[in-house]
């Protein structure tokens, strides 16, 4: 075969660099817009209702997490005028989280705090199996299920109930920011939440291109849960939180994203754990919305600009790279204005310092998700099936 003339290769590289630069500049502009949306959200206020029903708060637990007792304590230290029962659950009687729950009972003697130890497995999703077991002990109409690593404010339940009480609302969910509790790698994960997850979610909400429902918190009425098929419907679903939201919307009701922002306590201690977790997150989103996921490449302006520089973009690409870093930093600064509980002042400086590494890692995970067929979840190899379903090896079944 005849060799391709050198000038054709140069032209192709110039075209590729130009396209990448255009995408990078658009992505930086979107990040600046996201920063504005975040600052505007920081000023929003959730309505408080007058009806204060008794609430069942479900907390599926697994293992010893850094500051687990402190995080769970924020859910017990509520200024809610009504009553709250908090039901925690584990699958094994030797789970270290049991000791944490016992210590909380001593610290909050007046709290209605119960622990369920139930090994029954109802599907591939261990968290949903735990929730199914917890439902047998939940006594009340208003249900709130939330991750164990979430830090909440004292008016958390009050604001959830106020939003859930609004006409047409089927479920309430909450945005969250990150906090690293276990050293450098956990801070890197937290920076990813602040500067990648938060702006992407805000853009999705503003444009209507995404319909988020986040496992940080989902509040709904018992009859709504029954109407969508109960927790059992999602026992083999990887993105159970998203699926919950879609099922609620299918009933004709809204899924409301509260104005309040929670804090996700990150506990990753090694690079390999970060990669496994973030690859699972990316593969989950890809499985939910392949076209939207592919289009989100535009929200990676720094890697795009760097690739353009390698392709011969020159000083223009270098300038685009600096602009991308500045845009990401504007998001970190805006996120720090959110009234997130349990975060030290000036936390945005950590995210800003980590921007180059964080952006490159996020882009690598974005690309790797396209060739991922299984993910690691709490030490188990979870196989990705069509339509967002998952399966586990037979020896990890019920």
Structural class: alpha/beta
CATH class membership of the largest domain: Alpha Beta
Distance between the termini: 59 Å
Provide mean pLDDT, rounded. Answer: 89
Poorly predicted spans: none
Helix content: 40-55%
* CATH topology (fold) name of the largest domain: Spore Coat Polysaccharide Biosynthesis Protein SpsA, Chain A
Oligomer: single chain
Q: What characterizes the major β-sheet?
A: 8 strands, mixed
**What is the succession of H and E elements?**
HEHEHEHEEHEHEHHEHHHHHEEE
CATH architecture group name of the largest domain:
Alpha-Beta Complex
Q: Count up the helices.
A: 13
Which of globular, elongated, flat, extended, rod-shaped describes the shape? globular
Radius of gyration, in angstroms, nearest whole number: 22 Å
The strands making up the biggest β-sheet line up spatially as 3-2-1-4-7-6-8-5
List the domain count as a whole number: 2
Report the β-strand fraction as a percent range.
15-25%
- Fourth-tier CATH superfamily name of the largest domain: Spore Coat Polysaccharide Biosynthesis Protein SpsA, Chain A
Task: Work out the number of β strands.
Answer: 11
Structure, briefly:
This protein is α/β, with parallel strands linked by helices. Helices cover 49% and strands 17% of the residues.
What keywords describe this structure?
11 strands, 13 helices, 3-stranded antiparallel sheet, Spore Coat Polysaccharide Biosynthesis Protein SpsA, Chain A, 2 domains, 398 residues, 8-stranded mixed sheet, alpha/beta
Give an overview of the whole structure.
The strands form two sheets. The chain has an eight-stranded mixed beta sheet, sandwiched between helices. The N and C termini lie far apart (about 60 Å). It has helices spanning about 5-40, 70-75, 95-105, 125-135, 155-165, 185-205, 220-225, 240-250, 270-290, 290-295, 300-335, 350-355, 355-370; strands at about 55-60, 85-90, 110-115, 140-145, 150, 170-180, 215-220, 255-265, 375, 380-385, 390. It folds into two domains: about 20-40 and about 290-370; about 55-280, Spore Coat Polysaccharide Biosynthesis Protein SpsA, Chain A, CATH 3.90.550.10. It contains 13 helices and eleven strands. The protein is α/β, with parallel strands linked by helices. Helix 9 crosses helix 13. Strand 10 and strand 11 form a beta hairpin.
